[in-house]
């Protein structure tokens, strides 16, 4: 199982570059992903991805998340990615040394890949 976080192509004002975010305990995300993988898609061997838009709250917690796209459509990857937000907790300092901007938005893509499958 692989999850990759992909940066949004263009950042608007009030958004954080996801490539700058340092996640606390990324191994927890990988270890628990099967709990969130859409069951029907998993049973049929379907891989996919979803892009979500979240607000960064105090302590690096993500809230107010919504799916902005999912591929393939209708397989449940958008809902799964939004539910996974509880696994993501950002550290208080970005990779460039700037403080994590509480209240800013973060857009990133989660790729759902089953073992032995190619990434979408």
Topology:
Layout: E1 5-7, E2 15-16, H1 26-32, H2 39-44, E3 48-56, E4 62-71, H3 77-84, E5 105-112
Parallel strand pairs: 2-5
Antiparallel strand pairs: 1-5, 3-4, 3-5
Structure, explained:
This protein is of the alpha+beta class and 120 residues long. The chain has a single domain, classed as TonB (TolA/TonB C-terminal domain, 2-Layer Sandwich), CATH 3.30.2420.10. The chain is 18% helix and 27% strand. The protein contains three helices and five strands. It has helices spanning 26-32, 39-44, 77-84; strands at residues 5-7, 15-16, 48-56, 62-71, 105-112. Strands 1, 2, 3, 4 and 5 form a five-stranded mixed β-sheet that branches. β3 (48-56) and β4 (62-71) form a beta hairpin. The two termini are 13 Å apart. Residues 6-10 have low confidence and may be disordered.
List keywords for this structure.
120 residues, alpha+beta, TolA/TonB C-terminal domain, five-stranded mixed β-sheet, 27% strand, globular
CATH superfamily: TonB
Order of helices and strands: EEHHEEHE
Percent in helix: 10-25%
Q: Unreliable stretches, pLDDT < 50, 5 or more residues? A: 6-10
Shape: globular
CATH topology: TolA/TonB C-terminal domain
Mean pLDDT: 85
- Proportion of residues in extended strands: 25-35%
CATH class: Alpha Beta
Write a compact overview of the structure shown.
The chain is of the alpha+beta class. The protein contains 3 helices and 5 strands; from the N terminus they run ββααββαβ.
């Amino acid at each position: 199982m692989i999850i990759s976080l992909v940066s949004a192509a263009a950042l608007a004002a009030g958004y954080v570059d996801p490539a700058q975010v340092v996640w606390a305990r990324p191994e927890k995300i990988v270890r628990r992903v099967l709990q969130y993988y859409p069951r029907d898609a998993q049973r049929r061997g379907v891989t996919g991805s979803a892009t979500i838009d979240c607000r960064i709250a105090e302590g690096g917690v993500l809230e107010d998340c919504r799916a902005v796209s999912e591929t393939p459509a209708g397989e449940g990857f958008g809902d799964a990615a939004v539910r996974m937000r509880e696994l993501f907790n950002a550290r208080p300092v970005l990779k460039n040394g700037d403080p994590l901007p509480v209240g800013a938005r973060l857009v990133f893509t989660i790729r759902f890949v089953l073992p032995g499958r190619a990434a979408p």
